[in-house]
Amino acid sequence: MATILVTGGAGFVGSHLCDRLVERGDDVICLDNLFTGRKRNVQHLLGNPRFEFVRHDIVHPVYLEADQIYNMACPASPEAYQYNPIKTIKTSTVGMVNVLGLAKRCKARLLQASTSEVYGDPNVHPQTEDYWGHVNPIGPRSCYDEGKRVAESLCVNYANEHGMEVRIVRIFNTYGPRMDPNDGRVISNFIMQALRGEPLTIYGDGSQTRSFCFVSDLVDGIIRLMDQDERMGPVNVGNPGEYTIRELAETVLELTGSKAELGREPLPADDPKQRCPDITRAREWLGWEPKVPLREGLEPTIAYYRDRLAEERS
Ligand code: NAD
Ligand code: UDP
User: Fold this and answer.
1) Using H for helix, E for strand and C for coil, what is the string for the chain?
2) What domains appear along the chain, each with residue ranges and CATH number?
3) pLDDT tens for each residue of 25-71
4) Which pLDDT value is given to residue 194?
5) Ligand 1 pocket test: which of 16, 19, 36 has the largest number of ligand atoms within 8 Å of its C-beta?
6) Against a cut of 0.90, is the pTM above it?
7) Is the Cβ atom of 149 under 6 angstroms away from ligand 2?
8) Which of 144, 158, 175, 305 is catalytic?
C-alpha cells in the first residue's frame, strides 16, 4: 500500500485511475482545480477512507506527502485548452515544475501524462517514440503541444540533474464514460449529437484519422509504466486501430441507431491529418496492448451519455 497523488484526478482519465488505485488498496489523494474535471466523477469515492479530494491548482506550489505521483492535470480537449491558452502553458510548465519539486522533496516516482500531440501533424506514420514531431510553435494548438514538450524536457532534466525517477507516457486519443459531454472532443460530440438527432459535425472532409483507446486499457498501460523499475520512457500508449473521422461518425450512427445526418464544419487550423501509435515499446517494455476494440468500447460510452442526457431532460 502506498500514498499516491493523482493531479487532475477529477478529470476523465484521472478519475478512472483513482478508481483503479483505490480498488487495489492504495491511499489516493486526488488533487484538482475543477477546471474541466467534475466532483461528480469522484463522487462515489468521497466516503472511502482510502480517498481524499483536494481542490488546488498546480500552478501554485503543492505541499503534500506521496510515494508516487501521476501528473494528469491539464485540460485535454482542444476547446478546453484553447479557452485560456496562457493558463494551459502555465499548467504544463510552472505546474510541472511545482509537481516535480514536490516529487523531489518526497522522493516520489512521478509519471507525466504526455500526449501524441508532441508529434504535431506528423510526417512519420505510425508514430514511434523516437520521432521528434512536426509542431507549429505559434499555432492555436501550440499552447498544449509545446507545453507538453516542455513538460517532457523538464521531467528528463530533473531526472538527470537530481537522480529522480520519472516516467513519461504519450497518450493517444482515449475515450470512455466520464469524458465531459460538452468538451468538444470528437467522440463525445458525435455521440451527443447522434442521441439528440442533430447533424454530426464532421470537420473538413472527415478523411483525417485518429486511433481510439478505451479508458480501461489506457489506465492499465500507465499503471504498468509507473510500476516497472527499468525505463523512463517515453512510451506510446494507445490503440493502433486507425479510423477516419467519417468512419467514426458512421459507426456512432449505427451503434446509437440514430437517424441523424452527417454535417460538415470547417477543419480547424493545424488539425493533424493522421495519427496512429506504434506500440512496439509498450508491448516489449510493459507487456501491454489494448484489449477493447472501438465498437466494444463505444457501447458503455454511449450508455453513459444516454444517462447524462436523461438527467439533463429530467
Ligand atoms: P480532462 O480535462 O478530463 O482532465 C484534466 C484534469 O486536470 C481536469 O480534472 C482538470 O480540472 C484538471 N486540471 C487542469 N488544469 C489544472 C491545474 N492547473 N491544476 C489542477 N488541476 C488541473 O482530460 P483527460 O482526458 O482526463 O486528460 C488527462 C491527462 O491526459 C491530461 O494531462 C491530458 O493532456 C492527457 N492526455 C489525454 C488524452 C485523451 O485522449 N484523453 C490524450 C493525450 C493526453
Ligand atoms: N472532429 C470532428 N468533429 C467534431 C470534433 C472533432 O470532425 O465535432 C475531428 C477533429 O477535427 C480531429 C478529430 O476529430 O480531426 C479528433 O478531434 P479531437 O478534438 O477529439 O482530438 P484531437 O485528436 O484533434 O486532439
Assistant:
1) CCEEEEECCCCHHHHHHHHHHHHHCCEEEEEECCCCCCHHHCHHHCCCCCEEEEECCCCCCCCCCCCEEEECCCCCCHHHHHHCHHHHHHHHCHHHHHHHHHHHHHCCEEEEEEEHHHHECCCCCCECCCCCCECCCCCCCHHHHHHHHHHHHHHHHHHHHHCCCEEEEEECCEECCCCCCCCCCHHHHHHHHHHHCCCEEEECCCCCEEECEEHHHHHHHHHHHHHCCCCCCCEEECCCCEEEHHHHHHHHHHHHCCCCCEEEECCCCCCCCCCCECCHHHHHHHCCCCCCCHHHHHHHHHHHHHHHHHHHHC
2) 3-172+215-237 (3.40.50.720)
3) 999 999 999 999 999 999 999 999 999 999 999 999 999 999 999 99
4) 98
5) 36
6) yes
7) no
8) 144
